[in-house]
Specification:
By secondary structure, this protein is an alpha+beta fold. It is built from 2 helices and 7 strands, in the order E-E-H-E-E-E-E-H-E. It has a 5-stranded mixed sheet with strand order 2-1-7-5-6. A two-stranded antiparallel ribbon has the order 3-4. The longest helix has 11 residues. The termini are far apart.
Length: 107
C-alpha cells in the first residue's frame, strides 16, 4: 500500500486569488502516521483544514465560515457535488480531483 494519497485541488471563479493566484495544487497526503501502525484517513474536512492552514494566503473569511467552506463556494469531487458524496465526511481516494468554485461576486 502506498504511504501517500495523491489529490489534485483546483480553484476557479476568483477563489484562486486567496491562494496566491494558484489554480491548481497537487498534494501528496500521508496515509501513515509517524510512529503508528494504522492508516490515517483523509476526508474533505481534513483537506479543507490543510488548505486553510498551509495554503490559504489571505482573507480566510472568504473561504472558511464556521469551520467549513463558506456558502457560495461549490465543492466538486471528480465533477460530482460533494453534498451527494456526503459533504465534508467524504473519504478521499487516490487521484481524486477536488474543485472549489466561488459563486460570490462583488458589485
Amino acid at each position: 500500500m502506498s504511504s501517500s494519497l495523491s489529490v489534485s485541488v483546483e480553484f476557479k471563479g476568483g477563489i484562486e486569488l486567496l491562494f496566491s493566484g494558484k489554480t491548481k495544487i497537487d498534494l501528496q497526503l500521508p496515509t501513515k502516521a509517524i510512529g503508528s501502525s494504522g492508516d490515517e484517513q483523509w476526508n474533505l474536512k481534513r483537506l479543507i483544514d490543510l488548505l486553510r492552514d498551509d495554503h490559504l494566503q489571505e482573507r480566510p473569511e472568504l473561504f472558511i465560515e464556521h469551520n467549513t467552506v463558506r456558502p457560495g463556494i461549490l465543492v466538486l469531487v471528480n465533477d460530482t457535488d460533494w453534498e451527494i458524496l456526503g459533504g465534508e465526511n467524504y473519504q478521499l481516494k487516490n487521484n481524486d480531483n477536488v474543485l472549489f468554485i466561488s459563486t460570490l461576486h462583488g458589485g
